[in-house]
């Protein structure tokens, strides 16, 4: 078979192991871990489904070495200290072996990330003191918590811990190991001139600052033997005051290249900043960090991997073909679509679901401890995917509404063997996903098209320009009716709301030519702020007016809201909170503050982003239209993409 992406799909040999393609799964975490640090079934299944999806390797994050100093404290409401894998204790080998076998049975090479957080870890001393050990004395980012210089005896203990963990992982069946030497963790802390001010053999010169990392690599190599693939991640540029730049990273690469089989080039450090470069957000272009790998690759002979918001096969093929890197690593891309490598290999790239970089996965994990994905309802429900069984009886299923929830329901029902008809009242599938015109949300449009393509391929009969009414249902006589008819914009009862200068947010893509220079956005939730940002990026003068006391309270608190607010400030967007709109004139908006003062906001266009209202009338009309009915998505409660896809998927599973 002639591959459309021959370089991306070609095998690569690392050490004595041949990997089936150049698409690697970068480290991702799952919190189904016992208090002892053993992998539980949901975690094992989570990584198995990605192995089945065709990636060449699957890297699990993370096994913490030297747990007495390496366990990080609680990180958010749902995180508890200690939720990291154990690899040093031989009692962990059975669960590690089960994990490795679940991955390797599908042809992928299982790999484990070995890491130590350094100054971010906590050691409880015999006297009860909580100690943070780092390369040198200092303070954590809070400016209060002290860091103590790590004693040499503990450095040596940690090095030996890496070796014990490596030996156990090889014994358990892992075919590769990933040593984390970047992102501001322990090994990078020692290499960084910003954090390492030691005066002994582990500080000072570049070679001394690299010593800890080199001794870890030598110890791990001794534990696993020659020919066993070792991957080392480094950050090419710390991007912090006093930190190292790419020239030092190149020197480090030269020092490590004869000790490893794959150099994984990332960038940046974990920090308090919302736009961390090691995990690119949707305001950054895809492949934003590739140039670092390309530059370092010029100076070493060891194969190089690149990482960072990669999922476009054309881009990834070009990266390999032009020699910028030998491997592309993906994390979030394989969460949203574990089948991405298989789709690339089989020429189904138009069915790839692209990560939106919405950070729903991150925010939900910190909120509830559960890993979820806005566009992959099987994420953290992998047992259903691995045991996906056809329905005992094939039913005639009618799906009303071709938005993301309706498409997910139709696709899942068709895959279970039901005869599915999907009706959409407009001329295109996608629903609310099609309202996005933001440059930083362009993947939403691609994903709507991919979902439609998958429905078509699964045998779903798609009927566009077809509104589902009670009479229509009676005529079709389905066994099951799944209703996902969505919502409509909420139109606030404000004098002048029907003025010609008013555009509803959902209409912005269609009416972009009507938008004037000065725009007032009525509604400062996440949607309103994102539309405001896009308009400002296009050169409009934008003001956001919000009746609550803060902007975007519905945006995720981790990465999403802080970054959005930062961008509003960067683009000079004026914001007014605590202001309730009172009337709209031809030349702007009037709003009243909490203390009763009226203020005028001049505008050529008023963009109304005041929320959405479920289509309850349609719900009531269809309530008794079929023997089995399920309502879900925005027609029940206007909410997030996550709820629409998850509930659509679940509704289809409920069909018996």
Structural summary, described in words:
This protein folds into three domains: 12-383, Aldolase class I (TIM Barrel, Alpha-Beta Barrel); 391-489 and 640-653, NAD(P)-binding Rossmann-like Domain (Rossmann fold); 502-610, FAD/NAD(P)-binding domain (3-Layer(bba) Sandwich). α15 (404-415) packs parallel to α16. Helix content is 31%, strand content 20%. It has 656 residues and is an alpha/beta fold. The two termini are 40 Å apart. Strands 3-4-5-11-12-13-14-15 form an eight-stranded parallel barrel, surrounded by six helices.
CATH topology of the largest domain: TIM Barrel
Strand order of the largest sheet: 3-4-5-11-12-13-14-15
CATH class of the largest domain: Alpha Beta
| Uncertain regions spanning at least 5 consecutive residues | 76-81
CATH architecture of the largest domain: Alpha-Beta Barrel
CATH superfamily descriptor of the largest domain = Aldolase class I
Class inferred from helices and paired strands: alpha/beta
Task: Provide a short characterization of the protein structure.
The protein is α/β, with parallel strands linked by helices. The chain is built from 21 helices and 30 strands. It is globular, with a radius of gyration of 27 Å.
Observed structural traits:
TIM Barrel; single chain; eight-stranded parallel beta barrel; alpha/beta; five-stranded parallel beta sheet; Rossmann fold
Which helices and strands occur, and which strands form pairs?
Layout: E1 12-14, E2 17-19, E3 23-29, H1 41-52, E4 57-64, H2 67-70, H3 93-104, E5 109-115, E6 123-124, E7 130-131, E8 133-134, E9 138-139, E10 146-149, H4 152-172, E11 176-181, H5 186-191, H6 206-209, H7 211-224, E12 230-235, H8 246-256, E13 262-266, H9 290-297, E14 304-307, H10 313-321, E15 327-330, H11 332-336, H12 340-345, H13 360-368, H14 382-386, E16 396-400, H15 404-415, E17 419-423, H16 443-457, E18 461-463, H17 470-476, E19 480-483, E20 487-489, E21 502-504, E22 518-522, H18 526-537, E23 541-545, H19 560-570, E24 574-576, E25 579-585, E26 588-593, E27 598-602, E28 605-608, E29 612-614, H20 616-622, E30 628-631, H21 641-653
Helix pairs in contact: 1-3, 3-4, 4-7, 15-16, 15-21, 18-19
């Amino acid at each position: 078979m002639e591959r459309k992406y021959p370089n991306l799909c070609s095998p690569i040999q690392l050490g004595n192991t041949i990997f089936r393609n150049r698409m690697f799964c970068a480290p991702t975490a799952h919190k189904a871990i016992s208090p002892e640090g053993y992998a539980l079934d949901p975690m094992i299944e989570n990584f198995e489904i990605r192995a089945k999806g065709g990636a060449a390797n699957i890297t699990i994050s993370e096994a913490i070495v030297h747990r007495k100093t390496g366990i990080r404290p609680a990180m958010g409401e749902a995180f508890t200290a200690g939720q990291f894998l154990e690899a040093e204790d031989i009692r962990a080998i059975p669960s590690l072996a089960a994990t490795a076998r679940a991955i390797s049975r599908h042809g992928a090479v299982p790999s484990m990330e070995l890491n130590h957080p350094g100054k971010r870890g906590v050691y409880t001393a015999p006297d009860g003191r909580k100690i943070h050990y780092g390369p040198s004395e200092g303070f954590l980012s809070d400016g209060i918590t002290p860091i103590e210089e790590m004693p040499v005896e503990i450095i040596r203990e940690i090095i030996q811990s890496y070796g014990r963990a490596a030996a156990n992982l090889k014994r358990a069946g892992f075919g590769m190991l990933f040593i984390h030497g970047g992102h501001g963790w322990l090994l990078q802390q020692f290499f960084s001139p910003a954090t390492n001010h030691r005066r002994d053999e582990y500080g000072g010169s570049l070679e001394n600052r690299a010593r800890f990392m080199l001794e870890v690599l030598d110890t791990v190599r001794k534990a696993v033997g020659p020919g066993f693939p070792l991957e080392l991640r480094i950050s090419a540029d710390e991007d912090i005051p006093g930190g190292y730049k790419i020239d030092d990273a190149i020197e480090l690469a030269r020092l490590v290249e004869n000790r490893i089989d794959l150099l994984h080039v990332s960038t940046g450090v974990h920090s308090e900043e919302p736009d961390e470069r090691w995990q690119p957000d949707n305001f950054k272009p895809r492949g934003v960090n590739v140039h670092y790998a390309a530059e370092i690759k010029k100076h070493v002979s060891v194969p190089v991997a690149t990482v960072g918001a990669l999922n476009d096969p054309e881009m990834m093929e070009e990266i390999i073909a032009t020699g910028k890197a030998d491997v592309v690593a993906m994390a979030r891309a394989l969460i949203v679509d574990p089948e991405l490598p298989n789709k690339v290999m089989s020429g189904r790239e138009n069915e790839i679901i692209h990560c939106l970089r919405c950070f729903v996965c991150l925010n939900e994990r910190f909120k509830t401890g559960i890993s979820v994905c806005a566009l992959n309802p099987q994420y953290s429900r992998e047992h259903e995917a691995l045991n996906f069984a056809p329905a005992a009886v094939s039913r005639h299923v009618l799906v009303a509404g071709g938005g993301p929830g309706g498409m997910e329901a139709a696709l899942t029902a068709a895959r279970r063997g039901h005869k599915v008809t999907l009706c959409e009242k407009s001329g295109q599938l996608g629903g609310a996903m099609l309202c996005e015109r933001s440059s930083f949300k362009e993947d939403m449009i691609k994903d709507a098209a991919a979902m439609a393509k998958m429905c078509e391929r699964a045998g779903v009969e798609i009927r566009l320009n077809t509104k589902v009414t009670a009479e229509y249902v009676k005529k079709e006589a389905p066994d099951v009716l799944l209703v996902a008819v969505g919502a409509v914009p909420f139109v606030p009862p404000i004098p002048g709301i029907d003025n010609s200068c008013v555009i509803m947010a959902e209409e912005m893509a269609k009416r972009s030519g009507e938008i004037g220079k000065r725009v007032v956005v009525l509604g400062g939730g996440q949607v309103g702020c994102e539309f405001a940002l896009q308009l400002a990026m296009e050169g409009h003068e934008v003001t956001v007016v919000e009746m609550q006391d803060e902007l975007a309270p519905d945006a995720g608190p981790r990465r999403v809201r802080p970054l959005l607010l930062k961008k509003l400030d960067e683009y000079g967007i004026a914001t007014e909170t605590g202001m309730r709109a009172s009337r709209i004139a031809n030349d702007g908006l009037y709003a009243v503050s909490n203390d009763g003062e009226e203020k005028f906001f001049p505008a050529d266009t008023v963009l109304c982003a005041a929320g959405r209202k479920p289509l309850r009338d349609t719900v009531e009309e269809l309530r008794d239209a079929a023997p089995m009915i399920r309502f879900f998505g925005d027609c029940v409660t206007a909410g997030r993409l996550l709820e629409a896809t998850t509930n659509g998927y679940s509704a289809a599973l409920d069909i018996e």
